[in-house]
Write a structure and sequence with these properties.
alpha/beta, 10-stranded mixed beta sheet, 3-stranded antiparallel beta sheet, 17 strands, about 15% strand
């Protein structure tokens, strides 16, 4: 989902103790090669050297160059566009749907990423979306290739655990949270086929090596993150029905765990950002002819809109899912009508924001595999700074690696092996950006970075009152905030 914040803008840097992440693609690493072998290549784990990754990777590159002086010359790191074989499954405007693919011949791991980007739920706001965001409704302007970033990157220094996987990026052009099964008609004017697009992509990929996979990770951000929750079991069932019972299907949902809470200020349901989440989805699932997971549909029969909210659909999902969610998600705040416009927030808004974090924390407490930093942000797994965010001293790539290990370490020593390798990570501090590794916030008008203290004061933070609540001296709390603690 895209969020326009009039004055505050999250940037990919930590408040302190970290470098400003730059795109890490200038010198392609020869350690990554297109392998023609038929045996499975192994995935190197670089998480143990995260703190000194640049120096380490420099040494690896030097070694690789000395061993394979010609190997870096012809490498192509980009994913290439493929349109679906089944041309009846389309984008909103009837143009062909498709996907971007970068094969990794030696790897039996596949990562399918669902793009996000809000949705539309009526002819009027779909018409507006088509005029203003056409690439999210049509494939006519899609480029022939795409570069992967974050968990989609083929560079081990940016993606220490999944860099060697087969990468598949599914552009979002169905505007239906990946749930629709409705072809284009003369009356409606638009197709909503998100659910069918995923099915067809999986079918196409089975002819390109997916049939030999051991692991398929269905990932997505924002509306794509919700799409993961709605489709991960469907993908597992599809592969099973086609006889591919050996492929382990898992989900990774980033910034798609929305709450159906009461808005801070109720407004008429005119467009995507002003409409209460429940009302927008109620209208949408009828307009899109949505498909929801069978077990969730049975649980919420007649009220299938419940299946679009993480804490309601998650208990019905059979496949393993890792949830990544900012405790103060910008898109959630937008649909709740909290707009950070540059003026200090009122006390009632401040309380609402803090309560939102508490509510989200409560809905996640029984999710065994998750990563939830107390930051004001939206989406993370495809950002080039995704390695920098930590919860309780553990980075997101490290937590995902621990989660992967948990599926392999089935011996008697399982608990011993996973000690010091946490997968349930949630910040306990109570306000936005109390985690010092949160992405930096900038003042959008001046471009100046804001420290933790500046940001909280901007938000109307009352140091005296908060110090009393924490049972400490105000000057001590001020010092902690100034240092980013």
């Amino acid at each position: 989902m895209l969020l326009q914040v009039a004055r505050l803008q999250v940037q990919g840097r930590k408040f302190r103790g970290g470098r400003n992440p730059q795109p890490r693609r200038a010198q392609p690493s020869p350690v990554y090669r297109d392998r023609a072998e038929t045996t499975e290549s192994f995935s190197l784990d670089f998480t143990a050297v995260e703190d000194n990754i640049e120096d380490f990777m420099s040494q690896v590159k030097n070694l690789a160059q000395s061993l394979y002086p010609c190997s870096a010359q012809n490498l192509d790191y980009d994913m290439k566009l493929h349109f679906l074989e089944n041309t009846s499954v389309t984008c909103n405007d009837g143009t062909p749907a498709g996907y971007y693919l970068k094969e990794s011949k030696g790897s039996k791991r596949w990562l399918l990423f669902l793009e996000g980007g809000w949705y539309c739920f009526s002819k009027a706001n779909c018409d507006t979306r088509y005029e203003t965001m056409r690439r999210l409704m049509s494939s006519t302007t899609w480029p022939p290739s795409k570069t992967g970033t974050g968990i989609m990157s083929p560079m081990p220094e940016e993606n220490p655990h999944w860099w060697n996987a087969n990468m598949v990026f599914l552009p979002y052009c169905s505007s239906d949270v990946w749930s629709g099964a409705s072809p284009k008609t003369e009356q409606g004017g638009y197709a909503f086929m998100g659910s069918l697009i995923i099915k067809e992509v999986v079918k196409d990929l089975l002819t390109k090596g997916l049939d030999n996979a051991k692991v398929l990770l269905l990932a997505g951000s924002s509306a794509g993150g919700t799409g993961v929750l709605l489709n991960v079991d469907q993908v597992a069932e599809q592969l099973e029905e086609l006889g591919h019972v050996g492929i382990q299907v898992r989900g990774l949902s980033d910034s798609g765990w929305f709450l159906d809470n009461k808005q801070y200020r109720c407004t008429d349901c005119l467009d995507t950002t002003s409409c209460a989440p429940t009302e927008a989805i109620k209208r949408g699932i009828k307009y899109w002819n949505s498909v929801v997971p069978e077990r969730c549909r049975e649980t919420h029969e007649g009220e299938e809109w419940n299946c679009f909210f993480g804490y309601r659909v998650y208990p019905t999902i059979k496949s393993p899912v890792f949830v990544v969610q900012w405790l103060f998600d910008e898109a959630q705040l937008t649909v709740d009508n909290i707009h950070l416009t540059g003026q200090p927030v009122q006390e009632s808004q401040w309380r609402y924001i803090q309560n939102l974090g508490n509510e989200l924390r409560n809905t996640l407490k029984d999710v065994p595999a998750m990563f939830a930093p107390a930051c004001l942000s939206h989406e993370v797994i495809t950002r080039n700074y995704w390695m920098d965010i930590q919860v309780k001293g553990t980075s997101l790539p490290r937590a995902l690696h621990c989660w992967d290990r948990s599926f392999h370490d089935n011996s008697k020593n399982n608990k011993t092996l996973l000690r010091g390798c946490p997968v349930h990570l949630i910040d306990s501090c109570p306000w936005p950006h109390c985690n010092p590794t949160c992405p930096t916030i900038r003042d959008q008008f001046t471009g100046q970075e804001m420290s933790v203290l500046q940001f909280l004061l901007h938000m109307g933070f009352d140091v005296q009152k908060m110090a009393e609540q924490q049972g400490m001296d105000p000057s001590k709390l001020l010092g902690m905030l100034s240092s980013g603690s």
